[in-house]
Structure formats: structure tokens, C-alpha cells
Automatic annotation (TrEMBL):
UniProt source species: Shewanella halifaxensis (strain HAW-EB4)
InterPro entries: LD-transpeptidase_YkuD-like, LD_TPept_cat_dom, Peptidoglycan-bd-like, PGBD-like_sf, PGBDSf, Transpep_catalytic_dom
Protein family membership: Belongs to the YkuD family.
Annotated ranges, domain L,D-TPase catalytic: 227-406
UniProt keyword terms in alphabetical order: Cell shape, Cell wall biogenesis/degradation, Peptidoglycan synthesis, Signal, Transferase
Biological processes annotated in GO: cell wall organization; peptidoglycan biosynthetic process; regulation of cell shape
GO molecular function, one term: carboxypeptidase activity
Pathway(s) annotated for this protein in UniProt: Cell wall biogenesis; peptidoglycan biosynthesis
CDD domains linked: YkuD_like
Name of the protein: Peptidoglycan-binding domain 1 protein
Length: 464
């Protein structure tokens, strides 16, 4: 009798252990499935899509899992992104091996959850193009409103899942504003071409944007030092990082699409108070001389000095300048420091081949625009005082002169730094923010593979 009981107990233990092993195998495959799902969105090679299919359909043997685990590890390591543990491939427990392969990245779980949700949405067949032929304003009716309301709910911006009302009411307007803010649009609750373009972006395209930009940002951050400045061009945002935390943030203005701000890295070596502005030749010919042709007083009113090729100051009457601007113009402009100087109060100089730097602006109202691709290439910083004060407190050598020079507005003063501050101009069009909200931005320079969202998303809207 005791022997029979022992056999029964032993059998139950074996079944329990087998069940536990199966559960760990299932969980391991699910974790690997989520990883290769992200990689299939980033990597155009078919192997990750094949792995995704295998992991979703079959319980794989250890020998079948090994090549998949190897490719996952190589994906992260080739991008210098650390994983939890790279020395567990000899262990027999597939769940421990799967956990060890996950990257050590903030926000990894959030991005995986969002991609999983977007994959699910893509399978439902709900994303037929919404077509409108007029602007839809708050408190107005339109037959597309119920479909738009459902789409906002599916994307997490609206609270209610369904409505038959064709009215753009207050609650739906609030949801639209949330959606517009998440896409870098003016939050006015007016449904127009830009809002419709983003509403029509297919879920799989959203997933691809998030995955690609997540890996781009992770690869970038994994190779950074303790202290650096980063400007995300499509987001029109700047962040100052120090010892792993954000010390300062600001909205910025970047180059127009036909005068793009280049992607580059450098090191700020000097800060200038009350800078003068040496007008680049392209800006002189394209922007300033047309004003001079209309009115030669533009030079005096803008506080410009004009120099010839021998660096001699040239003085002419307003009419003479207007006439000279109509032909060959062998002169250069330098705007004197002052309240109306284009560069404003501060310039942050870092050597580069494009004559790009960070600076203040004489027109701060431009920061209120949602699309801030407005400059000729340089970066204008809204919180320029905050950045200047941080530089003065942490990097400027001659702090007393810094204090003294702030009483003046017409005298230029260059300041050397104790150490340079690395600055990086990057290009990320999608990310998960600190509130676990998916953020998307227009590919303003058409640099990423999703450079024609309207076409790929099937967005259809008539000219309004």
C-alpha cells in the first residue's frame, strides 16, 4: 500500500514538474516572440519574420531555440546595446535564457506592450481610410465622426469605445487635442489634412516607427558619456543630460526642409554673450538682398555693417545700396550686437563643417508654432537663458566677467569653458514618453524609411 502511494505521489510530482517545465517553455517562447517581433519591424531580413512565425505556431526544442537566441543576442550586441546576461546560453532552463537576452533599456517593456497592441490592431482589419472633403470643427457634425471616435479610442486617446453621434462634441474634442499633441500638431480639435493623415496611418506602420526609433535611440544612448546635449530635430526639442538625468529641456527651432539642419555631433567650446552675426552668403543672397532691393534703408535699420573683400567698411546711401543689390554684390554683411540682433543674446559655438550653432532669437513668438522647421539651418533655443546659466555655473572659466558683461547689450564677449559640452543633432520621429504615451512626429526631412506616410498609410483626403 505504501509503495502504491509512493508511486502515485511520484507520478504527481513528475506531472507537476513536467507542467512547470512546459509553462516555462511557453513563457520563454513568448518572450522570444516579442523580441523577434520588434526585430522584424527593424530589420528587413526575412529571418526574424520566420522566427516570429515559428515561435507562434510550435513548441520548439532546445536545438531549434538556440539559433533564434543567438540571432537575438547578436542583434543587440551589434548595436552596442547591453543585454541582461550574455553568459547563460549553456543553461538548460529556456525561461532564464530568454530573460537574459532582453536588453537593459528603460522603456523596453512599454515599447513591447505598445507594439503588441498595434500588431493586434493590424490583424483586425479596422483601419480602412477615412475620407473627408472639408474641415470638421468643434460643435459641427460630419458622418465620419463615429469612425473617428472609435479610432481615437483604439489608439488610447478617447474614453468611449463607440458612438452613433455625428457631432464633434466637447469630449471628442478633448480626445482630438490629446491625439494632436501626441503627433506634434496644433491642439485645436479641428480635423484637417494633418490630423487625418495621422488618423489614417496603419497600426503596423506605427509599430514600425516605434521599433525603428526605439532601437536608434537606444543605440545612441548606449554610447554616450555622463554629460551631453541632444537636439531631436523632428520633435523640435532639446535636452541636457548630466549623470543619467535630464537637467534642462527646451523647445527649439530647426532648419526648413529646403535648408535642413544636418545630423552631426560636436562639442560646444565657447559661449558668446551679445554675438554679432556674420551673415552666410546663401542667406545674404536668398533672404536679405531682396529686402535691400526694395528699400536700401534695410541695412541701417537692421544694424548691419557692410564690408568689401578686403575687409574694409563700405558706406553708401540707401538708394545706392538698393541699386547695388540688383547686380553682382561683392560685399558681406555683419549685424552688430544689440536687441534686434538675429542671434539674440547668446551663441553656443561648436566647430563643424556646416557653420551650425545654437543661439537665441529676436523673435520668440515663433516657438509657439507646432511646426518649428523655420530657420536656415542653425538651432534657436527657447530656454536660452536656462542653458546659458547652466553653462556659466558648470563650465565657464571666468565667472566674474560673465556677471559683469550681462549689464551690457552691445559689447561682444567670448567665454572659454573648463571643458567642452558634447552636442548631438539626432532624428527620432517616434518614442514612448515619461507618461507612457506614444509620441509621433513628421519626418520633416524625409530621412527615414517611412518618409511618405500619406502614401504608405493610404491616407486619402481632398484638398481643403
Amino acid at each position: 500500500m505504501r509503495f502504491c502511494r509512493f508511486i502515485c505521489w511520484f507520478g504527481l510530482v513528475c506531472l507537476s514538474l513536467a507542467s512547470l517545465a512546459d509553462e516555462r517553455q511557453t513563457r520563454a517562447q513568448d518572450m522570444l516572440y516579442q523580441q523577434v517581433s520588434l526585430m522584424a519591424l527593424v530589420n528587413s531580413e526575412s529571418k526574424f519574420e520566420q522566427y516570429r512565425s515559428l515561435l507562434s505556431q510550435h513548441s520548439l526544442s532546445p536545438s531549434e531555440l538556440k539559433p533564434i537566441e543567438h540571432e537575438i543576442a547578436q542583434f543587440w550586441l551589434s548595436r552596442q546595446i547591453p543585454i541582461r546576461n550574455s553568459s547563460t546560453n549553456h543553461l538548460g532552463d529556456p525561461f532564464i535564457r530568454a530573460m537574459a537576452l532582453e536588453p537593459e533599456l528603460n522603456g523596453y517593456l512599454q515599447i513591447q506592450n505598445r507594439i503588441r497592441h498595434l500588431h493586434w490592431l493590424a490583424q483586425q482589419g479596422w483601419w480602412q481610410p477615412i475620407i473627408i472633403d472639408e474641415l470638421i470643427r468643434p460643435s459641427k457634425k460630419h458622418p465620419s465622426i463615429p469612425t473617428i471616435a472609435k479610432r481615437l479610442w483604439l489608439l488610447g486617446d478617447a474614453e468611449r469605445s463607440a458612438t452613433t453621434s455625428t457631432l464633434l462634441d466637447e469630449k471628442l474634442s478633448s480626445a482630438l487635442k490629446r491625439f494632436q499633441r501626441r503627433h506634434g500638431l496644433q491642439p485645436d480639435a479641428i480635423i484637417g489634412p494633418e490630423t487625418m493623415k495621422w488618423l489614417n496611418v496603419q497600426p503596423i506602420e506605427r509599430a514600425r516607427m516605434l521599433a525603428n526609433n526605439f532601437v536608434l535611440k537606444a543605440e545612441f544612448m548606449a554610447q554616450r558619456g555622463d554629460q551631453f546635449l541632444v537636439i531631436n530635430i523632428p520633435a523640435f526639442e532639446m535636452a541636457l543630460f548630466s549623470k543619467g538625468r535630464v537637467e534642462l529641456e527646451s523647445r527649439v527651432i530647426v532648419g526648413k526642409p529646403y535648408r535642413p539642419t544636418p545630423l552631426l555631433s560636436g562639442a560646444i567650446s565657447n559661449v558668446v554673450i551679445n554675438p554679432s552675426w556674420r551673415v552666410p552668403k546663401k542667406i545674404l543672397y536668398n533672404d536679405l538682398l531682396p529686402h535691400v532691393r526694395k528699400d536700401g534703408n534695410y541695412i541701417a535699420e537692421g544694424n548691419f555693417d557692410v564690408f568689401d573683400r578686403s575687409n574694409n567698411l563700405v558706406v553708401r546711401t540707401a538708394q545706392q545700396w538698393s541699386d547695388l543689390a540688383r547686380g553682382p554684390f561683392p560685399y558681406r554683411f555683419v549685424q552688430r550686437p544689440g536687441y534686434n540682433n538675429t542671434l539674440g543674446r547668446y551663441k553656443f559655438y561648436f566647430p563643424n563643417d556646416f557653420s551650425i550653432f545654437l543661439h537665441d532669437t529676436s523673435n520668440p513668438k515663433l516657438f509657439e508654432r507646432s511646426n518649428r522647421a523655420l530657420s536656415s539651418g542653425c538651432i534657436r533655443v527657447e530656454n536660452v537663458e536656462g542653458l546659458a546659466n547652466w553653462m556659466a555655473a558648470n563650465l565657464v572659466k571666468d565667472k566674474q566677467t560673465w556677471v559683469d558683461r550681462h549689464a551690457e547689450r552691445t559689447r561682444t564677449q567670448w567665454f572659454a569653458l573648463n571643458s567642452t559640452l558634447n552636442v548631438h543633432l539626432v532624428y527620432w520621429t517616434a518614442w514612448i514618453d515619461e507618461h507612457n504615451q506614444a509620441q509621433f512626429r513628421n519626418d520633416i526631412y524625409q530621412l527615414q524609411t517611412l518618409n511618405t506616410l500619406e502614401d504608405r498609410a493610404g491616407a486619402q483626403i481632398n484638398d481643403l
